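Posting here for the record, re: uracil.
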Amino acid sequence: MRMVDLIEKKRDGFSLEKSEIEFVIRQYTNGEIPDYQMSAFAMAVFFKNMTNEERSYLTLAMAESGDQINLADIEGIKVDKHSTGGVGDKTTIALAPLVAAVGVPVAKMSGRGLGHTGGTIDKLESIPGFHVEITNEQFIQLVNENKLAIVGQTGNLAPADKKLYSLRDVTGTVNSVPLIASSIMSKKIASGAEAIVLDVKTGTGAFMKELDESIELAQAMVEIGNQLGRQTTAIISDMNQPLGYTIGNALEVKEAIDILRGQGPEDLEELCITLGSHMVVLAKKAETVEKAKQLLQEAISSGAALEKLKQFIAAQGGDATVVDEPEKLATAPYEIPVDADESGFVSEIVADKIGKAAMVLGAGRATKESTIDLGVGITLKKKIGDAVSVGETIAILHANSENVDRVVEMIQGSYTIVKEPVQRNKLIYEIFSSKIDNS
Ligand code: URA
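Prediction output follows.
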């Protein structure tokens, strides 16, 4: 086989065979196909698309390009959850103990990541003592005993995807549904997921800004799940404003704790219950989504979910007393209010801009080498639909210095205030589920 022939085949709109896609991925991972040929191939896929079969071959080839996590020693159906990412997304921290409390085994690998705030692991590390450096054996034992453990991603998970993603980033080929869908699904499959719940964000703060693009991506991933025998549910959720009220590592942990106390923000709670109910059904711990929602609500009201969080934190070396005394989490020395510059109703909060403001405060990493400040961030006081008067506080900055005029301007610039009342956004737009019969 020659790479040039496969590039031409795709360029001319033909479908590739499984063996041809395997060749591309194997040789590219080994360094035998150079970046310039792989760039041309990615661009051909960008313009000519891939069939469902090709997408599943690509997913599997990338999943098999490096380490594959074997979770066979964990009892029960291992359901993984993935979010395409947004601002203020602390869902995993509440969701993981919530579903574990009703018996779903959660063996999660999470990332640190670049961006407005840290990833789930960074957020959890704002709990004194909490660590993710546990061996594979400990990981499996913890999930069997407590139904929950979270570790950092291993170095060699889907290396083909890692290499291709970096190349796509600089060749204008990130925004391709077959490439994004196979990239995300390859990592889930390599990390041992038997069933997958995807939170596909849509809106100004999301990777996919338009609803129709988000639907296309969601359906593509569910179809890959179908082809590869992994029950997959994709939920399209709103990211036209940050999720919940907090952006910043320790601040987000506090808000996740509030959810498990039954005192969290409505949008975050609805998202946790919706994603969680589908995880519970896929893990066969409830027959219907309605029944699953009931189980999750009971786990919150009985305190079982909060207890599960404490057990999880203690098992990974953390100080579980932070759950009852969240003031022990990292804090910032200054709290600076941001005031509204006009009266009316909030019609827009550009999530991306709020995220950048949090990053300027030090909550996120600009480069892999940056260190993050776990205590800083932003608490929003007003969300879309809320009434506001000029001079009223719309947000509070948790900062390390009083010199934050630029961040104040960024926050004010991300809010749009209009004279007429505004309808609140709906949170869940659509839900797609795979059609595999393995009952
Ligand atoms: N996230 C991924 O993991 N891969 C993509 O291609 C895009 C977003």
